[in-house]
């Protein structure tokens, strides 16, 4: 009888520990492919159309980041973006987020050309906010890593504009 209960107990322990291991594995989420390194905690939409739909539905602005994998300026901005807690938190909670490695058919998203990196804001009424610009007059919607504080201000501006205009 002793042997049976010891066997039963060890089988129980094995079952519990393998379930625990599976639970721990589940907790460490696989990196989100849609984040492409811009922030794995952020929920990203897959397409511009989905972004517009979610923005309208959730009444949050859509933030569209145009970038390319082999662009050093995009990589630098991506790293600064991903490391900044304020940006990550705002992006996660207050925005519909989309990052694209291709141009959309919507010409409103490239008012001054198709360059990367380029960040545009679209409000829930589906208006592209061409008035929310970066620091550079030749490429209005580009940001560099040192412009992160400026980008944070523009994110806050995009949120304020919704409150004032609705």
Task: Describe the 3D structure.
With 166 residues, the chain is mostly helical. It has one domain (30-159): 3-Layer(aba) Sandwich (Glutaredoxin), CATH 3.40.30. Helices cover 46% and strands 9% of the residues. The protein is built from five helices and three strands, in the order H-H-E-H-H-E-E-H. It has helices at residues 2-27, 48-58, 72-83, 85-94, 148-165; strands at 62-66, 96-100, 118-122. A three-stranded mixed β-sheet has the order 2-1-3, with helices on both faces. The longest helix is centred in the N-terminal third of the chain and has 26 residues, at 2-27. The protein is elongated and about 85 Å long. The relative contact order is 0.15. It holds the Pfam family Thioredoxin_7. This is AGR3 protein. Residues 1-23 form the signal peptide. Belongs to the AGR family. It comes from Urocolius indicus (Red-faced mousebird).
């Amino acid at each position: 009888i002793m042997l049976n209960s010891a066997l039963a107990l060890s089988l129980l322990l094995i079952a519990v520990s393998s379930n625990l291991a599976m639970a721990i594995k589940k907790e460490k989420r696989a990196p989100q492919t849609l984040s492409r390194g811009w922030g794995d905690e952020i929920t990203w939409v897959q397409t511009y159309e989905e972004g517009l739909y979610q923005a309208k539905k959730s009444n949050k602005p859509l933030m569209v980041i145009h970038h390319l994998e082999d662009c050093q300026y995009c990589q630098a901005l991506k790293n600064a973006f991903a490391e900044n807690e304020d940006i990550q938190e705002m992006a996660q909670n207050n925005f519909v987020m989309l990052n694209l490695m291709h141009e959309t058919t919507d010409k409103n998203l490239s008012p001054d050309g198709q360059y990367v990196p380029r960040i545009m804001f679209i409000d829930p009424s589906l208006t592209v906010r061409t008035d929310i610009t970066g620091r550079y007059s030749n490429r209005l919607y580009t940001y560099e890593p040192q412009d992160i504080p400026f980008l944070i201000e523009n994110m806050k501006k995009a949120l304020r504009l919704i409150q004032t205009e609705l």
